[in-house]
Specification:
heterodimer, A: 173 residues, Arp2/3 complex 21 kDa subunit ARPC3, 7 helices, globular, B: 307 residues, alpha+beta, six-stranded antiparallel beta barrel, six-stranded antiparallel barrel, 4 helices
Chain lengths: 173, 307
């Protein structure tokens, strides 16, 4: 069962990573743009059990660390996404108001996206990564949240179907 | 959840956290294995990025064009006139022409200063999710590019080579908040440090408290030892605002970069610096005001029927 899940989820993550790096990164989107990989990982984390969400966060974090635009040390995104995945799933676990409700999932993903970026800033500051002026950081934070708000509802049906297919749940919307 | 399952979940979480911390420690200690990992990923990704750049080239400037629309509102009338003329060119070979123009200007700039350059196309704009400003180009170590080389745009400094792969390279843009370059003011030769701010503006910190700057002063790169990371004389930008804080030790100013980082299509990497400092020879020429011919109309009263 686990082997099947990993063997199906891995190419999906790699494909989304490729789309992020080869297609979405071509555009310098206003307000910092969005990370489709992060949205996928957070959406799946909302729909999964906490330990599965932690593994999803870990895998997506490794890929985000491999991205050439990752400014911090290797492992920073891994740690943040792992904890974010676990936390978001732990908070929403067993709550059907979230799992069975598209608006609830989008809300969770957008809020998580915002806090993940803040966590990146804080850990980056602790690890000595330069983050820029406060004004620019605020613009980027809100810009990314707005992009997540725009992109999440569009991608939600696809991502939930993929999740249902791999994890054999009834959470497709 | 059963007790055993809960225990396993906790163990899994702890293992993953320890692994992440282990990876961070390895990276901060400079272990090469992780660099090879990243390099391998980039080697695999670069053909896809190159293909993506070709396919998406006609539409990738759409968002930056929309963003700049408000700021250029006062120039609409002027641009409309130019637009009619440009439309024919745009229809024919819009992207090729634009890149060629950029390349010509870069070569003019490099030729004037005596820089030996390698040209490259931008194949990826980078993401801001890590609050960094980077681009990826389609040339790497196979073309003679090395880490810490100066990167030029058609207007001046674009950034510096941060990482090199066989067929691609990662460029840290001058707009990146971690970017710093030694600068001097053309003419007065006052020196300072220019720091990126995450957008097209930068902040200049003068090193001497007895000197002053004024709006419009042009900044050039001071240059580094052995011309790396910066060759001397590259135009950086101009002073757009002077900050006169009463308690400041040295004067600071806001700089507007010449390079528009959101429209970079072609860049040049300086692989060999000039034999002598080009001085102020690269300072952009101020636009010449073309005199408008005046027309004098003399009105002669015509005889009317009543007279």
């Amino acid at each position: 069962m686990l082997t099947r899940q990993i063997s199906v989820a891995t190419p999906i993550f790699l494909l989304i990573f490729l789309i992020q790096e080869a297609v979405i990164s071509q555009f310098r989107l206003p307000g910092g743009g969005f990370s489709i990989l992060m949205i996928l990982a957070l959406t799946w984390a909302v729909l999964s059990q906490p330990e599965v969400a932690a593994v999803i966060g870990f895998a997506s974090g490794i890929l985000m660390d491999l991205s050439q635009s990752a400014g911090g040390p290797f492992g920073q995104w891994t740690l943040i996404m792992l904890l974010a995945g676990y936390a978001i799933s732990y908070i929403g676990y067993g709550d059907d108001n979230i799992h069975a409700n598209a608006i609830g999932i989008v809300f969770f993903v957008v809020v998580a996206n915002f806090f993940v970026e803040i966590a990146y800033l804080i850990t980056g500051a602790l690890l000595g990564v330069s983050i820029g002026s406060l004004g620019q950081v605020v613009i980027t934070l809100f810009g990314m949240s707005i992009w997540a708000l725009l992109v999440s509802p569009i991608m939600l049906p696809v991502f939930t179907r993929m999740h249902a297919m791999i994890f054999d749940s009834r959470s497709s919307l | 959840m059963r007790k055993g399952g809960e225990g396993r979940a906790r163990l899994l979480l702890v293992i993953l956290i320890v692994t992440s911390l282990f990876l961070i420690t390895l990276d901060l200690r400079g272990v090469k294995v992780l660099d090879s990992f990243k390099q391998g990923t980039q080697t695999v990704l670069s053909p896809f990025q190159r293909a993506g750049a070709v396919v998406l080239n006609p539409v990738k400037n759409f968002f930056s064009d929309v963003t700049n629309l408000g700021r250029t509102g006062n120039q609409i009338e002027k641009l409309e006139a130019e637009n009619a003329e440009l439309k024919i060119q745009l229809l024919n070979r819009k992207n090729a022409d634009a890149q060629l123009a950029q390349l010509e200007n870069i070569l003019d700039l490099a030729g004037t200063a005596g820089y030996k350059v390698v040209n490259a196309k931008v194949i990826s704009q980078g993401s801001s999710q890590s609050f960094s400003q980077t681009i990826t180009i389609d040339s790497g170590s196979n073309a003679g590019i090395k880490k810490n080389m100066t990167v030029l745009s058609q207007f001046g400094l674009a950034g510096v080579v941060k990482d090199v792969y066989p067929n691609s390279a990662l460029i840290q843009l001058a707009s990146d908040s971690a970017f710093k370059v030694g600068a001097r003011i053309a003419g007065t030769q006052q020196i300072g440090i220019l720091s990126g701010r995450g957008n097209r503006s930068a902040s200049l910190q003068l090193l001497d408290n007895s000197t002053t700057v004024k709006v419009g002063d042009v900044l050039l790169a001071r240059g580094s030892i052995a011309n790396r990371p910066f060759v001397p004389g590259v135009p950086l930008g101009y002073v757009s605002q002077v900050d006169n804080s009463a308690g400041a030790v040295a004067q600071t100013a806001t700089i507007r970069y010449y390079t528009n980082f959101s429209t970079l299509g072609v860049v040049a990497i300086v692989v060999s610096g000039p034999t002598s400092d080009p001085g102020d020879s690269l300072v952009p020429k101020k636009p010449q005001v073309t005199p408008v011919p005046t027309v004098t109309v003399t009105v002669t009263p015509s005889p009317t029927a009543n007279n």
